[in-house]
Amino acid sequence: MQLTAPATPRPQNPTRDADGMAVASFILGLLGLLVLNLFLGPIAIILALVALWRGTARKGRAYLGLALGVADLAVLAIAMEASNTVSWSL
After folding, report:
1. What is the pLDDT of residues 10-59, one digit of tens each?
2. Which residue, 62, 63, 70, 75, is CA-closest to 24?
């Protein structure tokens, strides 16, 4: 005798997941301009590319996340070159 209904799997929505990745990419890219740009920049780039590959409805956010991720790495490279160190500080 079964007292509960059998578990039904939730339908996966890849577009919703991709939309979340696009937003996360934008936020991490924006945050990466201020702190931890060495780590957050590449993560923002990867999330943006995966979101675009999965067909996100938020293409603008994904492209902004991609651009901000690249900007994170560019800021780091410029700051390292200007200070002649491996890191930068204000």
Report:
1. 556 656 788 889 999 999 999 998 888 889 999 999 999 999 998 888 89
2. 62
Phi/psi at 63 (nearest 5 deg)? -65, -40
Write out the DSSP string of 46-87. HHHHHHHHTT-S-HHHHHHHHHHHHHHHHHHHHHHHHHTSSS
Specify whether the CB–CB gap between 54 and 21 falls below 8 A. yes
Cβ neighbors of 21 (< 8 A, separation 6 or more) are 47, 48, 50, 51, 54, 56, 62
